[in-house]
Amino acid sequence: MNVRDVNAPAIADPGFAAISREINQAHHLPGHIYSSPEVAKLEKERIFLRQWLCVLREEEIANPGDYVALRIAGEPVVISRDAKGQVVAFMNVCLHRGVEVAYGAGNTELFRCPYHSWAYNGSGKLIGAPRIKETGRDMSKCQLPRVRSALWQGWVFINFDPQAQDFTEFIAPVEQAAPWYRTGECRIARKLTFDVACNWKFIAENLLDWYHASVVHAGTFGKYYKLGPEPLPATLLPQGASVIQFDNTSRSVDPNLPFPRLPWVDEGNVFSGKGAIFPNINFWSGMDSLRMWHLWPQGPGMTHAVCYILLPEAAFGVDDFDAKLEQYCNYVRQVALEDKGALESLQRGVDSAHFVPGPLSHLELQLQHLLKHYVGVMGFDQEAATNAR
Ligand code: FES
Ligand SMILES: [Fe+2]
Fold first, then answer.
1. pLDDT tens, 13-31?
2. CA dist list (Å): 237 to 11, 37, 175
3. Which residue among 63, 116, 147, 158 has its CA within the 20 to 30 Å range from the CA of 272?
4. Tens digits of per-residue pLDDT, 334-361?
5. Whose CA is nearest to atom 3 of ligand 1?
6. Does the pTM exceed 0.90?
7. Structural domains of the chain, with CATH
8. Is the Cα torsion angle 219, 220, 226, 227 positive or negative in sign?
């Protein structure tokens, strides 16, 4: 795949294979994978319809009958808590003509299709199909197609692929490497959303990019990150995931913490942990709070990013909670705004016919790990090998 057919620059595009070299020799990925509609379509097929995806918190559907209707990678899906209190996921595509049967979020005992009134219970089982009985068909065993789902630390994951790896196996390496990510003992303080005019991978990479922190975020948290020439102490996990943990003051988070220390962070310890789960999740823990980012592509050059801010129960009782949370959210918004400027410019840059992917810094190790996995999952490593022959 080569889009550089005019005004070829003097330096050759190093191609896909260059991401997998030793970091001292590695180069970033070709620009068109961030802007091509064909690549975005292939990503849906090869990534978003095959991977485990974190879609919401269990607490967002806390009671039997609660549901949320979502579009994940363009696929309409319902996540609901059925009458027995189990979290279930099923396609939001009516068995008659395909109209969506659930909208928004709410609580209901049945979903009624707005087109011809077929009715489904909270698990997606068909319980009524007016005027079909007369045709002699037996509709008693019909069910909206189920989507695999799993729960972890208060999060709901789904997978559209019935053949996908077992979730417990999938999450085990992350769980072992990040025992401090205890969101199961927290609840949502706020959910912030951002629309950024760039490819989803740029945000996934940026959230793992220690190189830009002291530059783009010099006015916020960047001043606390004094990263030297030594390799990052990151743990690189299977399937593109990675975790990093800092426990010394020179790499701490902002000391002006508005909330009490997390109960499981030791007294006297200055702590910050961060990780990624392929494809679109980035998670973080400071000393007082935890966060998780979900990145949802809205086309090659647009991403809807959701940032969950989570706190342990005790934090909700502090004096001036609302004001402190607002201060916290403003801080996250400010940091996100700093990134947004760089990321949207990055998108314009790779769209240029003159863009050539440059070399990586050792501070881009986690980002490289994610991209190596991406290239493999997309089959671009095969393509690179074919082109080399
Ligand atoms: S499309 Fe749903 S009842 Fe006809
Ligand atoms: Fe950033």
1. 788 999 999 999 999 999 9
2. 33, 30, 11
3. 158
4. 999 999 999 999 999 998 888 999 999 9
5. 116
6. yes
7. 16-50+168-388 (3.90.380.10), 53-164 (2.102.10.10)
8. negative
